[in-house]
Amino acid sequence: MRVSYSELKAEFKRVLLARNVAEPIAEACATMFADTTQSGVYSHGVNRFPRFIQQLEKGDIHPDAEPTKVLSLGAIEQWDAHQGIGNLTAKKMMDRAMAIADQFGIGVVALKNANHWMRGGGYGWQAAEKGYIGICWTNSIAVMPPWGAKECRIGTNPLIIAVPSNPITMVDMSCSMYSYGMLEVNRLAGLQTAVDAGFDDGGKPTKDPAVVEKNRRLMPMGFWKGSGLSIVLDMIATLLSNGLSVAEVTEEKDDEYCVSQIFIAIEVDRLIDGATKAEKLQKIIDYVKTAERADPNIAVRLPGHEFNTIWAENQANGIPVDERVWAKLKAL
Predict the structure, then answer these.
(1) Per the database entry, which stretches of residues form a coiled coil (predicted)?
(2) Residue 68 is inside which H or E element, if any?
(3) pLDDT at residue 134, rounded to an integer
(4) Residue 67 in 3-state DSSP?
(5) Total Cβ atoms within 10 A of residue 27
(6) For position 128, which CATH number holds?
(7) In a domain, 78, yes or no
């Protein structure tokens, strides 16, 4: 089924207001969830919303909390989210990183006690739209086995890197081959994943999303490389924010909250003039796109270039929502 942007946003806001979330906060949060969904990131938009409400009702999320600065060290700042709404806090932190970059050329904000930020790519995009290079990542509760293990001890710890090209080029990747959100998207659609998503109970690679959702044996992205990347991202986020690590979140909390996040903005325009920047970026894009195709019917992929098309299609035709997810939303 497809629903309009306004109808979807209204449902999000209705549910938030019914939980006594203040009107301005409900409006801003509903807008971000609707924007994420219209962008085609259903796994962290409408599909994730019932889980978000569950944590809100449980008290893991403090809707009125505002982030506060703990420490300033030139271009690096530490902030405390106080368990505020994750997507609203993350947006503020990337705004702050850009403001610091205006002064120092680079801005780094390290955040502790944060909640799930929903679509991480949104904050890289937020920076790139304004001409900055945007880099951000978060740790999580332990939801993936490290390479060589079958017990969850590391996070999927998504990493985002966005470049202000035209269109914006952005990597938004979990350290696992598939996030749990994308496993859900494939399961709801009755699809196997395109490549192995994890291991079955016997330790063999599988493309069955339901199996991996259940046994939580995700395949690290790039095998041992994704496992290693997850570990070092966790270490850096923990050290810079003086917040909780994956191990501490997992052992000390009963769910995924109080995570640590990093937001980096790099001011490009004082390093290179606009015409040269555009020329160099276009050269890279053209060089990649004109490579001989492995399949004549499938274009060479550039990360993030699909989002403008998806946004326009969903704006024109309505946003696709799984009927079961819509029923959950209406019942909240």
Answers:
(1) none
(2) strand 68-73
(3) 98
(4) coil
(5) 16
(6) 3.30.1370.60
(7) yes
Reduce the DSSP state of residue 179 to 3 states and report it: coil
Closest CA to 34 of 3, 5, 2: 5
pLDDT of residue 155: 97
Total number of domains in the chain: 1
Say how far apart CA 140 and CA 212 lie, in whole Å: 18
Residue 25 belongs to some domain of the structure: no
Segments of the chain with pLDDT less than 70:
none
What does the alpha-carbon distance between residue 56 and residue 326 come to, in Å, rounded to a whole number? 19
Q: How far is CA 41 from CA 55, 88, 260, in A?
A: 20, 17, 22
> Which residues constitute the domain of residue 226?
65-176+220-267
d(CA 157, CA 145): 13
User: Which amino acid belongs to residue 308?
Assistant: N
pLDDT tens for each residue of 112-144: 999 999 999 999 999 999 999 999 999 999 999
User: Within a domain: residue 256?
Assistant: yes
Give catalytic status of residue 44 as yes or no: yes
- In tens, the pLDDT along 159-189 reads 999 999 999 999 999 999 999 989 999 999 9
Helix/strand/coil (H/E/C) assignment for every residue in 291-306: CCCCCCCCCCCCCCCC
Catalytic residue among 44, 62, 116, 305: 44
